[in-house]
Design goal:
Order of helices and strands: EEEEEEHHH
Radius of gyration: 20 Å
Number of strands: 6
Helix content: 40-55%
Amino acid sequence: MKTNAAKTETQLLGYGSGSLSIELEGQDLKHIDEFVYLVVNSVEGTEADVKQRIGIASGIFKMLSKIWTERDLSKALKTEVFEVMVISALLQNSEI
């Protein structure tokens, strides 16, 4: 297994702020202040996570607009598409 320096980032966790200077394969790794892991924002917490989930679900809903207006598709099929595509994105990794 090999670490890809171009895809690797560093983050300083804990109290206070600072930066890291880590080099891999002769390249300085990019330092970031926040990241999203399993759709949970590491810095802003739950409120930002909820806003992000709503944004993702809303985007998926809009991308499927042709399905919602299609007269040849049943309401049952549209409901199933909604639950599978939109609701699952909204509730990903949530405890219900």
